[in-house]
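User: Good morning. I'm curious how flavin-adenine dinucleotide would be positioned relative to this chain. Could you predict the structure with it bound?
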Amino acid sequence: MTQDTHQNTVRKLVIVGGGTAGWIAAAAFARLRGKTLDIELVESDAIGTVGVGEATIPQIIRLNTILGLDEHDFVKQTKGTFKLGIEFVDWGKVGTRYLHTFGDAGMNLASVPFHQYWKRAAAAGHEKDLWHYSLHKVAANKAKFGKMDRVGNTSMTGLAYAYHFDASLYATYLRAFSEQLGVTRTEGLVQSVTRGGESGDIRSITLDDGREVTGDFFIDCTGFRALLLGQELDVGYQDWSKWLPCNSAQAVPSERLETLVPYTRATAKSAGWQWRIPLQHRTGNGHVYCSDFISDDEAGETLLAGLDTKPLADPRPIRFTTGRRATFWSHNCAAIGLSSGFLEPLESTSIHLIQSHVSRLLQLFPTTSNCETERAEYNRRCAAEFEQIRDFLILHYHQTTREDSEFWRYCKNMDVPDSLRHKQELFASSGRVGRDADDLFREASWVQVMLGQGVMPGSHDAMADGLTEADLGEFLGNVRTLVERAVDSLPTHEQYLQQHCTAD
Ligand SMILES: Cc1cc2nc3c(=O)[nH]c(=O)nc-3n(C[C@H](O)[C@H](O)[C@H](O)COP(=O)(O)OP(=O)(O)OC[C@H]3O[C@@H](n4cnc5c(N)ncnc54)[C@H](O)[C@@H]3O)c2cc1C
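Assistant: Good morning! Here's the predicted structure, ligand included:
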Protein backbone atom coordinates (compact mmCIF):
# COMPACT_ATOMS: atom_id res chain seq x y z
CA MET A 1 0.00 0.00 0.00
CA THR A 2 1.41 3.41 -0.97
CA GLN A 3 1.73 5.56 2.11
CA ASP A 4 2.47 9.18 2.64
CA THR A 5 5.64 9.06 4.75
CA HIS A 6 4.57 12.08 6.80
CA GLN A 7 0.90 11.36 7.38
CA ASN A 8 0.90 7.60 6.81
CA THR A 9 -2.48 7.79 5.07
CA VAL A 10 -4.12 5.98 2.21
CA ARG A 11 -4.51 8.63 -0.45
CA LYS A 12 -6.03 7.10 -3.54
CA LEU A 13 -9.29 5.12 -3.66
CA VAL A 14 -10.22 3.30 -6.87
CA ILE A 15 -13.80 2.08 -7.31
CA VAL A 16 -14.18 -0.44 -10.12
CA GLY A 17 -17.76 -0.55 -11.46
CA GLY A 18 -20.36 2.14 -12.07
CA GLY A 19 -23.66 0.47 -11.24
CA THR A 20 -25.73 1.41 -8.21
CA ALA A 21 -23.01 0.02 -5.91
CA GLY A 22 -20.14 1.91 -7.52
CA TRP A 23 -21.93 5.23 -7.59
CA ILE A 24 -23.33 4.96 -4.03
CA ALA A 25 -19.78 4.20 -2.84
CA ALA A 26 -18.39 7.10 -4.87
CA ALA A 27 -21.05 9.54 -3.63
CA ALA A 28 -20.66 8.62 0.05
CA PHE A 29 -16.84 8.59 0.01
CA ALA A 30 -16.77 11.87 -1.90
CA ARG A 31 -19.13 13.44 0.61
CA LEU A 32 -17.37 12.19 3.75
CA ARG A 33 -13.76 11.64 2.69
CA GLY A 34 -13.50 13.77 -0.44
CA LYS A 35 -11.10 16.24 1.16
CA THR A 36 -8.59 13.56 2.17
CA LEU A 37 -8.86 10.99 -0.62
CA ASP A 38 -8.49 11.08 -4.39
CA ILE A 39 -11.38 9.03 -5.76
CA GLU A 40 -11.46 7.52 -9.23
CA LEU A 41 -14.29 5.33 -10.56
CA VAL A 42 -13.69 3.03 -13.53
CA GLU A 43 -16.62 1.62 -15.48
CA SER A 44 -17.09 -0.05 -18.83
CA ASP A 45 -19.82 1.07 -21.23
CA ALA A 46 -19.26 -2.19 -23.10
CA ILE A 47 -20.34 -4.24 -20.08
CA GLY A 48 -23.04 -1.98 -18.66
CA THR A 49 -24.97 -2.52 -15.43
CA VAL A 50 -27.41 -5.19 -14.31
CA GLY A 51 -30.19 -2.63 -14.94
CA VAL A 52 -32.59 -3.77 -12.20
CA GLY A 53 -32.93 -2.81 -8.52
CA GLU A 54 -35.77 -0.34 -8.30
CA ALA A 55 -37.39 -0.94 -4.90
CA THR A 56 -35.88 0.11 -1.58
CA ILE A 57 -36.49 0.05 2.17
CA PRO A 58 -36.73 3.06 4.54
CA GLN A 59 -33.04 2.98 5.51
CA ILE A 60 -32.27 4.65 2.16
CA ILE A 61 -33.58 7.90 3.64
CA ARG A 62 -30.54 7.88 5.95
CA LEU A 63 -28.24 7.63 2.92
CA ASN A 64 -29.99 10.53 1.21
CA THR A 65 -29.69 12.59 4.39
CA ILE A 66 -25.97 11.88 4.67
CA LEU A 67 -25.51 12.85 1.04
CA GLY A 68 -27.63 15.96 1.60
CA LEU A 69 -30.05 15.19 -1.25
CA ASP A 70 -33.30 17.07 -1.67
CA GLU A 71 -35.93 14.33 -1.45
CA HIS A 72 -38.50 15.75 -3.82
CA ASP A 73 -35.87 16.56 -6.45
CA PHE A 74 -34.45 13.06 -6.05
CA VAL A 75 -37.87 11.41 -6.59
CA LYS A 76 -38.56 13.74 -9.53
CA GLN A 77 -35.23 13.07 -11.27
CA THR A 78 -35.50 9.30 -10.88
CA LYS A 79 -39.22 9.27 -11.85
CA GLY A 80 -39.78 7.62 -8.52
CA THR A 81 -42.78 6.87 -6.33
CA PHE A 82 -43.23 6.27 -2.60
CA LYS A 83 -43.41 2.82 -1.04
CA LEU A 84 -45.20 1.84 2.18
CA GLY A 85 -44.41 -1.88 1.95
CA ILE A 86 -44.68 -5.02 -0.16
CA GLU A 87 -47.91 -6.85 -0.90
CA PHE A 88 -47.38 -10.62 -0.89
CA VAL A 89 -49.94 -12.51 -2.93
CA ASP A 90 -50.44 -16.33 -2.79
CA TRP A 91 -47.41 -17.02 -0.57
CA GLY A 92 -48.59 -18.90 2.53
CA LYS A 93 -51.55 -20.28 0.59
CA VAL A 94 -53.05 -19.62 -2.84
CA GLY A 95 -55.80 -17.00 -2.49
CA THR A 96 -54.21 -15.12 0.46
CA ARG A 97 -52.53 -11.72 0.43
CA TYR A 98 -50.92 -9.50 3.06
CA LEU A 99 -48.94 -6.29 3.16
CA HIS A 100 -45.53 -6.33 4.83
CA THR A 101 -45.57 -2.68 5.77
CA PHE A 102 -42.72 -0.51 6.99
CA GLY A 103 -44.70 0.46 10.09
CA ASP A 104 -46.33 -0.99 13.17
CA ALA A 105 -49.90 -2.19 13.17
CA GLY A 106 -51.83 -0.30 15.85
CA MET A 107 -49.86 1.06 18.79
CA ASN A 108 -48.16 -0.54 21.74
CA LEU A 109 -49.66 0.02 25.18
CA ALA A 110 -47.65 -0.11 28.42
CA SER A 111 -44.73 -1.61 26.44
CA VAL A 112 -46.85 -4.58 25.37
CA PRO A 113 -46.77 -5.09 21.59
CA PHE A 114 -50.08 -4.27 19.91
CA HIS A 115 -50.36 -7.66 18.23
CA GLN A 116 -50.58 -9.30 21.67
CA TYR A 117 -53.74 -7.29 22.47
CA TRP A 118 -55.04 -8.01 19.00
CA LYS A 119 -54.41 -11.75 19.45
CA ARG A 120 -56.24 -11.80 22.76
CA ALA A 121 -59.17 -9.87 21.27
CA ALA A 122 -59.28 -11.96 18.09
CA ALA A 123 -59.59 -15.12 20.18
CA ALA A 124 -62.57 -13.48 21.91
CA GLY A 125 -64.29 -12.75 18.58
CA HIS A 126 -63.08 -9.21 17.74
CA GLU A 127 -61.67 -8.22 14.32
CA LYS A 128 -59.49 -11.09 13.10
CA ASP A 129 -57.34 -9.13 10.65
CA LEU A 130 -54.36 -7.36 12.28
CA TRP A 131 -54.02 -5.06 9.23
CA HIS A 132 -57.44 -3.57 10.03
CA TYR A 133 -55.43 -1.50 12.57
CA SER A 134 -52.50 -0.70 10.27
CA LEU A 135 -52.12 2.92 9.15
CA HIS A 136 -49.88 1.78 6.28
CA LYS A 137 -52.28 -0.87 5.05
CA VAL A 138 -55.34 1.37 5.13
CA ALA A 139 -53.39 4.14 3.34
CA ALA A 140 -52.05 1.65 0.77
CA ASN A 141 -55.56 0.30 0.08
CA LYS A 142 -56.74 3.82 -0.71
CA ALA A 143 -53.55 4.67 -2.70
CA LYS A 144 -52.82 7.53 -0.30
CA PHE A 145 -49.51 8.99 0.77
CA GLY A 146 -48.21 11.98 2.72
CA LYS A 147 -45.63 12.94 5.29
CA MET A 148 -46.78 12.01 8.78
CA ASP A 149 -44.25 11.40 11.58
CA ARG A 150 -46.89 10.73 14.21
CA VAL A 151 -50.67 10.37 14.28
CA GLY A 152 -51.96 13.59 15.82
CA ASN A 153 -50.65 13.99 19.36
CA THR A 154 -50.91 10.28 20.14
CA SER A 155 -48.05 7.79 20.53
CA MET A 156 -49.03 6.07 17.27
CA THR A 157 -46.12 6.29 14.82
CA GLY A 158 -46.84 7.79 11.43
CA LEU A 159 -45.94 6.64 7.92
CA ALA A 160 -42.52 5.06 7.38
CA TYR A 161 -41.70 4.89 3.69
CA ALA A 162 -39.10 4.14 1.06
CA TYR A 163 -38.89 4.74 -2.70
CA HIS A 164 -39.31 3.02 -6.01
CA PHE A 165 -37.12 4.54 -8.75
CA ASP A 166 -35.76 3.95 -12.23
CA ALA A 167 -32.41 2.16 -11.71
CA SER A 168 -30.65 3.76 -14.67
CA LEU A 169 -31.83 7.27 -13.71
CA TYR A 170 -30.66 6.60 -10.15
CA ALA A 171 -27.13 5.74 -11.33
CA THR A 172 -27.11 8.85 -13.55
CA TYR A 173 -28.27 10.98 -10.62
CA LEU A 174 -25.57 9.66 -8.29
CA ARG A 175 -22.92 10.00 -10.98
CA ALA A 176 -23.68 13.70 -11.49
CA PHE A 177 -23.66 14.19 -7.72
CA SER A 178 -20.31 12.39 -7.29
CA GLU A 179 -18.59 14.12 -10.21
CA GLN A 180 -19.67 17.46 -8.78
CA LEU A 181 -17.86 16.51 -5.56
CA GLY A 182 -14.67 15.76 -7.47
CA VAL A 183 -14.85 12.03 -8.27
CA THR A 184 -12.97 11.24 -11.50
CA ARG A 185 -14.79 8.89 -13.86
CA THR A 186 -12.74 6.75 -16.24
CA GLU A 187 -14.40 4.73 -18.96
CA GLY A 188 -12.63 1.51 -19.91
CA LEU A 189 -12.59 -2.24 -19.64
CA VAL A 190 -10.32 -3.70 -16.97
CA GLN A 191 -8.09 -6.30 -18.59
CA SER A 192 -5.52 -7.12 -15.95
CA VAL A 193 -4.66 -6.52 -12.34
CA THR A 194 -1.16 -5.95 -10.93
CA ARG A 195 -0.35 -6.99 -7.37
CA GLY A 196 2.59 -6.07 -5.21
CA GLY A 197 5.42 -8.01 -3.63
CA GLU A 198 4.99 -9.84 -0.37
CA SER A 199 1.61 -8.47 0.66
CA GLY A 200 -0.09 -9.45 -2.58
CA ASP A 201 -2.10 -6.20 -2.35
CA ILE A 202 -3.55 -4.78 -5.54
CA ARG A 203 -1.35 -1.99 -6.96
CA SER A 204 -3.11 -1.12 -10.20
CA ILE A 205 -5.55 -2.16 -12.89
CA THR A 206 -4.80 -1.97 -16.59
CA LEU A 207 -7.52 -1.06 -19.10
CA ASP A 208 -8.01 -2.43 -22.61
CA ASP A 209 -6.33 0.60 -24.20
CA GLY A 210 -3.23 0.15 -22.02
CA ARG A 211 -3.98 2.89 -19.46
CA GLU A 212 -2.97 1.99 -15.93
CA VAL A 213 -4.97 3.13 -12.89
CA THR A 214 -3.05 2.88 -9.62
CA GLY A 215 -4.53 3.02 -6.13
CA ASP A 216 -3.98 2.39 -2.43
CA PHE A 217 -7.39 0.85 -1.78
CA PHE A 218 -9.84 -0.74 -4.24
CA ILE A 219 -13.60 -1.25 -4.00
CA ASP A 220 -14.83 -4.03 -6.24
CA CYS A 221 -18.26 -3.00 -7.57
CA THR A 222 -18.07 -5.12 -10.74
CA GLY A 223 -21.37 -6.90 -10.13
CA PHE A 224 -21.72 -10.68 -10.34
CA ARG A 225 -18.26 -10.86 -12.01
CA ALA A 226 -16.49 -9.87 -8.76
CA LEU A 227 -13.44 -9.15 -10.86
CA LEU A 228 -11.10 -8.11 -8.05
CA LEU A 229 -12.21 -9.91 -4.88
CA GLY A 230 -13.55 -13.07 -6.51
CA GLN A 231 -11.42 -13.54 -9.63
CA GLU A 232 -8.12 -11.86 -8.74
CA LEU A 233 -7.95 -12.41 -4.97
CA ASP A 234 -9.72 -15.76 -5.25
CA VAL A 235 -12.13 -15.25 -2.35
CA GLY A 236 -14.71 -18.05 -2.43
CA TYR A 237 -18.51 -17.92 -2.41
CA GLN A 238 -20.92 -19.52 0.08
CA ASP A 239 -23.79 -20.93 -1.95
CA TRP A 240 -27.18 -20.66 -0.17
CA SER A 241 -29.30 -22.10 -3.00
CA LYS A 242 -30.50 -24.95 -0.81
CA TRP A 243 -32.44 -22.36 1.22
CA LEU A 244 -33.03 -19.68 -1.40
CA PRO A 245 -33.39 -21.78 -4.54
CA CYS A 246 -34.29 -19.12 -7.12
CA ASN A 247 -31.37 -18.65 -9.53
CA SER A 248 -32.82 -16.74 -12.50
CA ALA A 249 -34.87 -13.69 -13.28
CA GLN A 250 -36.45 -12.10 -16.31
CA ALA A 251 -37.27 -8.41 -16.20
CA VAL A 252 -39.53 -6.36 -18.46
CA PRO A 253 -40.88 -2.81 -18.29
CA SER A 254 -44.56 -2.19 -19.03
CA GLU A 255 -46.80 0.86 -19.32
CA ARG A 256 -47.48 2.78 -16.15
CA LEU A 257 -50.29 1.73 -13.84
CA GLU A 258 -53.49 3.71 -14.06
CA THR A 259 -53.43 4.26 -10.30
CA LEU A 260 -49.96 4.65 -8.80
CA VAL A 261 -50.23 2.50 -5.69
CA PRO A 262 -47.64 3.17 -2.95
CA TYR A 263 -46.34 -0.38 -2.64
CA THR A 264 -44.46 -3.15 -4.46
CA ARG A 265 -46.36 -6.33 -5.29
CA ALA A 266 -44.73 -9.78 -5.06
CA THR A 267 -46.96 -12.53 -6.43
CA ALA A 268 -45.94 -16.15 -5.85
CA LYS A 269 -45.84 -18.29 -9.01
CA SER A 270 -45.41 -22.03 -9.53
CA ALA A 271 -41.59 -21.90 -9.40
CA GLY A 272 -40.84 -18.47 -7.93
CA TRP A 273 -42.50 -15.08 -7.82
CA GLN A 274 -43.23 -11.98 -9.88
CA TRP A 275 -42.59 -8.35 -8.89
CA ARG A 276 -44.48 -5.23 -9.89
CA ILE A 277 -42.94 -1.83 -9.14
CA PRO A 278 -44.96 1.32 -9.94
CA LEU A 279 -42.93 4.22 -11.36
CA GLN A 280 -44.14 7.58 -12.68
CA HIS A 281 -43.42 6.78 -16.34
CA ARG A 282 -43.59 2.96 -16.47
CA THR A 283 -43.99 -0.19 -14.38
CA GLY A 284 -41.03 -2.40 -13.49
CA ASN A 285 -41.80 -6.13 -13.62
CA GLY A 286 -39.81 -9.29 -13.24
CA HIS A 287 -40.15 -13.00 -12.65
CA VAL A 288 -37.66 -14.55 -10.20
CA TYR A 289 -37.58 -18.33 -10.52
CA CYS A 290 -35.64 -21.53 -10.07
CA SER A 291 -34.58 -23.00 -13.40
CA ASP A 292 -34.63 -26.54 -11.93
CA PHE A 293 -38.42 -26.33 -11.87
CA ILE A 294 -39.38 -24.23 -14.91
CA SER A 295 -37.85 -23.54 -18.34
CA ASP A 296 -36.78 -20.02 -19.37
CA ASP A 297 -39.44 -19.98 -22.08
CA GLU A 298 -42.19 -20.90 -19.68
CA ALA A 299 -40.89 -18.38 -17.12
CA GLY A 300 -40.99 -15.64 -19.77
CA GLU A 301 -44.56 -16.57 -20.71
CA THR A 302 -45.60 -16.55 -17.04
CA LEU A 303 -44.11 -13.07 -16.64
CA LEU A 304 -45.92 -11.64 -19.66
CA ALA A 305 -49.19 -13.30 -18.71
CA GLY A 306 -48.96 -11.74 -15.24
CA LEU A 307 -48.50 -8.12 -16.39
CA ASP A 308 -51.17 -5.55 -15.54
CA THR A 309 -50.14 -3.22 -18.37
CA LYS A 310 -48.76 -3.53 -21.91
CA PRO A 311 -45.08 -4.63 -22.14
CA LEU A 312 -42.62 -2.08 -23.54
CA ALA A 313 -39.75 -4.47 -24.36
CA ASP A 314 -38.85 -8.15 -24.43
CA PRO A 315 -37.98 -9.94 -21.15
CA ARG A 316 -34.28 -10.01 -20.33
CA PRO A 317 -32.87 -13.07 -18.51
CA ILE A 318 -30.41 -12.71 -15.61
CA ARG A 319 -28.66 -15.60 -13.76
CA PHE A 320 -27.45 -15.58 -10.18
CA THR A 321 -26.54 -17.79 -7.25
CA THR A 322 -27.88 -16.76 -3.86
CA GLY A 323 -25.22 -16.55 -1.17
CA ARG A 324 -22.30 -14.42 -0.12
CA ARG A 325 -18.54 -14.03 -0.42
CA ALA A 326 -16.61 -16.02 2.20
CA THR A 327 -15.07 -12.68 3.21
CA PHE A 328 -16.03 -9.23 2.04
CA TRP A 329 -12.67 -7.48 2.41
CA SER A 330 -9.37 -9.14 1.58
CA HIS A 331 -5.94 -7.49 1.21
CA ASN A 332 -6.63 -3.87 0.18
CA CYS A 333 -9.93 -4.61 -1.55
CA ALA A 334 -13.56 -4.72 -0.39
CA ALA A 335 -16.42 -5.99 -2.56
CA ILE A 336 -19.67 -4.04 -2.40
CA GLY A 337 -22.90 -4.72 -4.27
CA LEU A 338 -23.55 -7.86 -6.29
CA SER A 339 -19.83 -8.73 -6.16
CA SER A 340 -20.23 -9.29 -2.39
CA GLY A 341 -23.19 -11.65 -2.63
CA PHE A 342 -26.84 -11.69 -3.56
CA LEU A 343 -29.84 -12.70 -1.48
CA GLU A 344 -32.44 -12.25 -4.24
CA PRO A 345 -34.75 -9.24 -4.41
CA LEU A 346 -37.77 -10.46 -2.41
CA GLU A 347 -37.49 -7.85 0.38
CA SER A 348 -35.57 -5.20 -1.63
CA THR A 349 -32.50 -5.51 0.59
CA SER A 350 -29.61 -5.29 -1.90
CA ILE A 351 -29.39 -1.52 -2.17
CA HIS A 352 -29.61 -1.39 1.60
CA LEU A 353 -26.67 -3.83 1.84
CA ILE A 354 -24.66 -1.58 -0.47
CA GLN A 355 -25.42 1.38 1.74
CA SER A 356 -24.63 -0.41 4.99
CA HIS A 357 -21.38 -1.87 3.61
CA VAL A 358 -20.31 1.56 2.39
CA SER A 359 -21.08 3.13 5.73
CA ARG A 360 -19.24 0.33 7.59
CA LEU A 361 -16.25 0.70 5.30
CA LEU A 362 -16.21 4.43 5.92
CA GLN A 363 -16.18 3.79 9.67
CA LEU A 364 -13.36 1.23 9.44
CA PHE A 365 -11.47 2.65 6.46
CA PRO A 366 -7.75 1.91 6.82
CA THR A 367 -5.12 4.56 7.25
CA THR A 368 -2.21 2.16 6.76
CA SER A 369 -1.62 -1.29 5.34
CA ASN A 370 -1.64 -2.65 8.88
CA CYS A 371 -5.42 -2.96 9.17
CA GLU A 372 -6.10 -6.57 10.09
CA THR A 373 -8.31 -5.69 13.05
CA GLU A 374 -10.50 -3.34 11.01
CA ARG A 375 -10.73 -5.91 8.22
CA ALA A 376 -11.77 -8.67 10.64
CA GLU A 377 -14.43 -6.45 12.21
CA TYR A 378 -15.78 -5.45 8.81
CA ASN A 379 -16.00 -9.08 7.69
CA ARG A 380 -17.64 -10.17 10.95
CA ARG A 381 -20.37 -7.53 10.78
CA CYS A 382 -21.09 -7.99 7.06
CA ALA A 383 -21.41 -11.77 7.51
CA ALA A 384 -23.85 -11.40 10.43
CA GLU A 385 -25.97 -8.93 8.47
CA PHE A 386 -26.17 -11.22 5.43
CA GLU A 387 -27.20 -14.16 7.63
CA GLN A 388 -29.97 -12.25 9.42
CA ILE A 389 -31.48 -11.11 6.14
CA ARG A 390 -31.12 -14.63 4.71
CA ASP A 391 -33.26 -16.08 7.52
CA PHE A 392 -35.99 -13.50 7.01
CA LEU A 393 -36.16 -14.30 3.29
CA ILE A 394 -36.22 -18.06 3.82
CA LEU A 395 -39.24 -17.58 6.10
CA HIS A 396 -41.34 -16.43 3.12
CA TYR A 397 -40.61 -19.62 1.18
CA HIS A 398 -40.63 -22.13 4.00
CA GLN A 399 -43.64 -20.94 6.01
CA THR A 400 -46.24 -22.11 3.53
CA THR A 401 -48.94 -24.71 3.17
CA ARG A 402 -48.53 -24.74 -0.62
CA GLU A 403 -48.00 -28.16 -2.16
CA ASP A 404 -49.32 -27.38 -5.65
CA SER A 405 -45.95 -27.58 -7.45
CA GLU A 406 -42.62 -29.33 -7.06
CA PHE A 407 -40.99 -26.00 -6.19
CA TRP A 408 -43.39 -25.26 -3.32
CA ARG A 409 -43.19 -28.83 -2.00
CA TYR A 410 -39.41 -28.42 -1.90
CA CYS A 411 -39.64 -25.07 -0.07
CA LYS A 412 -42.19 -26.31 2.45
CA ASN A 413 -40.16 -29.40 3.33
CA MET A 414 -36.60 -28.05 3.21
CA ASP A 415 -34.42 -27.88 6.33
CA VAL A 416 -33.94 -24.32 7.52
CA PRO A 417 -31.12 -22.80 9.61
CA ASP A 418 -31.56 -23.39 13.38
CA SER A 419 -31.59 -19.63 13.90
CA LEU A 420 -34.80 -19.39 11.84
CA ARG A 421 -36.41 -22.55 13.17
CA HIS A 422 -36.14 -21.13 16.70
CA LYS A 423 -37.91 -17.90 15.66
CA GLN A 424 -40.71 -19.83 13.94
CA GLU A 425 -41.28 -22.04 16.99
CA LEU A 426 -41.25 -19.13 19.42
CA PHE A 427 -43.77 -17.13 17.40
CA ALA A 428 -46.05 -20.11 16.85
CA SER A 429 -46.13 -20.74 20.58
CA SER A 430 -46.80 -17.27 21.99
CA GLY A 431 -46.49 -14.61 19.28
CA ARG A 432 -43.15 -13.54 20.73
CA VAL A 433 -40.41 -12.48 18.33
CA GLY A 434 -36.88 -13.76 18.90
CA ARG A 435 -35.07 -11.23 16.76
CA ASP A 436 -31.45 -10.21 17.26
CA ALA A 437 -30.91 -6.69 18.57
CA ASP A 438 -29.12 -5.55 15.40
CA ASP A 439 -31.48 -7.32 12.98
CA LEU A 440 -32.40 -5.11 10.01
CA PHE A 441 -36.01 -6.27 10.29
CA ARG A 442 -37.98 -4.89 13.20
CA GLU A 443 -40.34 -6.85 15.42
CA ALA A 444 -43.29 -5.52 13.38
CA SER A 445 -41.78 -7.03 10.21
CA TRP A 446 -41.39 -10.48 11.72
CA VAL A 447 -44.94 -10.31 13.13
CA GLN A 448 -46.48 -9.31 9.80
CA VAL A 449 -44.64 -11.92 7.75
CA MET A 450 -45.28 -14.72 10.28
CA LEU A 451 -49.01 -13.89 10.44
CA GLY A 452 -49.22 -13.18 6.72
CA GLN A 453 -47.69 -16.53 5.90
CA GLY A 454 -50.27 -18.22 8.10
CA VAL A 455 -48.68 -18.75 11.54
CA MET A 456 -51.28 -18.07 14.23
CA PRO A 457 -49.70 -18.05 17.72
CA GLY A 458 -51.10 -20.64 20.11
CA SER A 459 -51.60 -18.02 22.83
CA HIS A 460 -51.05 -14.37 23.60
CA ASP A 461 -48.57 -12.88 26.06
CA ALA A 462 -50.13 -12.75 29.55
CA MET A 463 -49.07 -9.10 29.82
CA ALA A 464 -51.90 -8.31 27.40
CA ASP A 465 -54.38 -9.43 30.08
CA GLY A 466 -53.84 -6.18 31.97
CA LEU A 467 -56.92 -4.58 30.36
CA THR A 468 -60.50 -5.53 31.17
CA GLU A 469 -62.56 -6.93 28.31
CA ALA A 470 -64.41 -3.60 27.97
CA ASP A 471 -61.20 -1.55 28.02
CA LEU A 472 -59.67 -3.83 25.41
CA GLY A 473 -62.65 -3.31 23.08
CA GLU A 474 -62.48 0.45 23.60
CA PHE A 475 -58.71 0.52 22.98
CA LEU A 476 -59.02 -1.35 19.68
CA GLY A 477 -61.96 0.82 18.60
CA ASN A 478 -59.95 3.98 19.34
CA VAL A 479 -56.97 2.67 17.37
CA ARG A 480 -59.17 1.97 14.37
CA THR A 481 -60.73 5.45 14.56
CA LEU A 482 -57.29 7.08 14.75
CA VAL A 483 -56.13 5.12 11.71
CA GLU A 484 -59.21 6.02 9.65
CA ARG A 485 -59.03 9.71 10.51
CA ALA A 486 -55.31 9.87 9.79
CA VAL A 487 -55.73 8.24 6.38
CA ASP A 488 -58.68 10.52 5.54
CA SER A 489 -56.39 13.51 6.09
CA LEU A 490 -53.80 12.32 3.54
CA PRO A 491 -53.66 13.28 -0.14
CA THR A 492 -53.64 10.51 -2.72
CA HIS A 493 -50.20 9.22 -3.70
CA GLU A 494 -50.78 10.67 -7.16
CA GLN A 495 -51.70 14.11 -5.76
CA TYR A 496 -48.60 14.10 -3.56
CA LEU A 497 -46.35 13.25 -6.51
CA GLN A 498 -47.99 15.84 -8.74
CA GLN A 499 -47.60 18.52 -6.12
CA HIS A 500 -43.98 17.80 -5.18
CA CYS A 501 -42.17 15.35 -7.44
CA THR A 502 -43.09 15.62 -11.12
CA ALA A 503 -41.37 17.53 -13.89
CA ASP A 504 -42.98 20.95 -14.50
C1 LIG B 1 -33.48 -9.66 -10.76
C2 LIG B 1 -32.95 -8.66 -9.79
C3 LIG B 1 -33.82 -7.75 -9.18
C4 LIG B 1 -33.34 -6.85 -8.23
N1 LIG B 1 -34.21 -6.00 -7.59
C5 LIG B 1 -33.75 -5.23 -6.58
C6 LIG B 1 -34.62 -4.38 -5.84
O1 LIG B 1 -35.81 -4.26 -6.13
N2 LIG B 1 -34.10 -3.67 -4.83
C7 LIG B 1 -32.79 -3.72 -4.48
O2 LIG B 1 -32.37 -3.10 -3.50
N3 LIG B 1 -31.93 -4.46 -5.21
C8 LIG B 1 -32.38 -5.21 -6.23
N4 LIG B 1 -31.51 -5.97 -6.95
C9 LIG B 1 -30.08 -5.82 -6.70
C10 LIG B 1 -29.59 -4.56 -7.40
O3 LIG B 1 -29.91 -4.62 -8.77
C11 LIG B 1 -28.08 -4.43 -7.23
O4 LIG B 1 -27.75 -4.55 -5.88
C12 LIG B 1 -27.62 -3.09 -7.71
O5 LIG B 1 -28.05 -2.83 -9.01
C13 LIG B 1 -26.11 -3.01 -7.66
O6 LIG B 1 -25.50 -3.69 -8.70
P1 LIG B 1 -23.94 -3.53 -8.84
O7 LIG B 1 -23.62 -2.09 -8.95
O8 LIG B 1 -23.30 -4.31 -7.76
O9 LIG B 1 -23.60 -4.28 -10.20
P2 LIG B 1 -23.88 -3.87 -11.73
O10 LIG B 1 -25.08 -3.04 -11.90
O11 LIG B 1 -23.82 -5.15 -12.49
O12 LIG B 1 -22.63 -2.98 -12.14
C14 LIG B 1 -21.39 -3.54 -12.41
C15 LIG B 1 -20.45 -2.46 -12.93
O13 LIG B 1 -19.16 -3.04 -13.09
C16 LIG B 1 -18.63 -2.66 -14.30
N5 LIG B 1 -17.69 -3.68 -14.76
C17 LIG B 1 -17.82 -5.03 -14.71
N6 LIG B 1 -16.73 -5.63 -15.25
C18 LIG B 1 -15.89 -4.64 -15.61
C19 LIG B 1 -14.61 -4.62 -16.23
N7 LIG B 1 -13.96 -5.72 -16.61
N8 LIG B 1 -14.05 -3.41 -16.47
C20 LIG B 1 -14.67 -2.26 -16.13
N9 LIG B 1 -15.88 -2.22 -15.54
C21 LIG B 1 -16.48 -3.40 -15.30
C22 LIG B 1 -19.81 -2.50 -15.24
O14 LIG B 1 -19.51 -1.64 -16.30
C23 LIG B 1 -20.84 -1.89 -14.28
O15 LIG B 1 -20.64 -0.50 -14.28
C24 LIG B 1 -31.96 -6.84 -7.92
C25 LIG B 1 -31.09 -7.70 -8.58
C26 LIG B 1 -31.57 -8.61 -9.50
C27 LIG B 1 -30.61 -9.54 -10.19
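Confidence is low (pLDDT under 50) at residues 1-8. Residues 16-22, 42-44, 47-50, 52-56, 189-190, 221-223, 225, 227, 249, 251, 286, 318, 320, 337-339, 345, 348, 350-351, 354 surround flavin-adenine dinucleotide (CB under 6 Å).
Let me know if you'd like a different ligand tried.
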